[in-house]
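Box 3.1 A note on notation
Throughout this textbook, protein chains are presented in two layers. The first layer is the amino acid sequence; the second is a token string describing backbone geometry. Keep the layers aligned when reading.
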Amino acid sequence: MLCPWAGRTKTRSRCGCWSPELVSNSVRHAGLSSTDSITLDVWVEDGLVRGEVTGAGPGFDRPTFDQPPGGTSGRGLYLVDALADHWGIERTIDDQEWTVWFQIELNQETSDRGRRGG
């Protein structure tokens, strides 16, 4: 199956980076049990790739980054912030879970990324 952004090397790299990062963050920080689930959705629509990772957990406020985090961990959302055109965190409609989402604009290989939020 061909990826809809197959000819866009930078877009493909940016999309490939976020999903394992957001899923591993959800597993690591949400305090989920082995019976809990995480949902990963990705779709292309209207010139955007949108990805969402949804799962239970305590949620968190969207961090801001003045500089890269120090130490050997804690860089996941910094990478999402640097690579996504837009991203955010929101409660699901039923108020039972949290979704971390991001968007990448397909028509802008070198867009002004990160730190813009929703």
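The mean pLDDT is 77. The CA atoms of residues 5 and 12 lie 6 Å apart.
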